[in-house]
Amino acid sequence: MHITEILFWFLTSLSLFSALMVVFSSNPVYSVLWLILVFFTISGHYILMNAQFLAIVNMIVYAGAIMVLFLFVIMFMNMNKESEPQKSNWLRLAAAVSGGSLMLILVAALKDNGGFINSLRGEGNIGLIKNLGKVLFTQYVVPFEISSILFLSAMVGAVVLAKKEKSPVVS
Fold first, then answer.
1. Is residue 167 pLDDT above 80, yes or no?
2. CATH number of the domain that 121 lies in?
3. Which pTM was predicted?
């Protein structure tokens, strides 16, 4: 076995174990922490497929910002065993059937094209950040600059709207 295959299977097994722990954890905070580990292992898969930009964006956006938001909401709601709604057995059965159907579809889709392992063996420069930057700043420089002006005007507008006006003191 090649080292990338070993790393792929290790990340895959860790992803599956962490995803199962997300579902089966009784504490919602632990569930979110397991989900963060799932996002990191998915970023590892992106790196194995030579998509470094997607890996970094996945870590920053999902494992960073979204999970902090999830943790904040869970801690703000102060959920415990008594306040959590109980799930019926029918709902659990429906979740198991839909998850099994999704797994069956994924296995059928991967059977025909050889799976992920064949994509790991390809040596290419498609996902490199260097190539993305080269295309972004040569072919798409005008739309990139227009979008930066749009984001700047949105930030200025948010600051203007959020700024409180001081009312005059009436005596």
1. no
2. 1.20.120.1200
3. 0.60
